[in-house]
Here is the input.
Amino acid sequence: MINRKHLLIVLVIGIFLSGCSSTSSSSSIEPTSLASAYLSVDYADATNIRSQLAYGTIKLANTANSITFEQAQSLIPLWQGIIALSGDTTTASEELTAIQDQITTTLTTDQLKSIAEMKITNAQLNSFYAEYGVVLPTPIPGVTKVPGSGSTKTEEEKAAYRATAEAAGQTTGSGQSAKTLLFEKTIEYLMNIK
Here is the structure.
């Protein structure tokens, strides 16, 4: 796991590098992710860009655009940073976007295009989570509820849902472990690249 001191160093380097690059846009209301130049959420049941990067990275295995050993070594601490920041309630969205941008610049244009062509959906992620025994409650079929987010269920309904899932040997889609499972599996995949 990456500690806060190392994470701060990674963020400072990333901010420095992004400041060194020239940009032609001088008036931007809200900073956008570099990945949004390649990846879109404008298709049916699209998952968020960060999840597309993580799941797409795994799905590049054994393709012409597989992640290289050198890329993996650069990506591992970045995904560890995403996990560390995801678990901190004081994290600003700009911090996560800064690391996501570093992940994006580590990938090649061809790799990003390949991930974009996958058109990764929430339904695909539901299946991915189910492989690991995590059931994400989805009120609408094919729509993934963001793990760890609030719900309108009463405490009794939540307890009944947890009891049912536990009886079936499944983990419910709440808490930090469910929220970061995809990123943890991405790191696991990257650590096994030789």
Observations:
- Residues 42-133+176-191 form one domain.
- Confidence is low (pLDDT under 50) at residues 15-31, 147-151, 168-175.
- Strands lie at 134-135, 171-172.
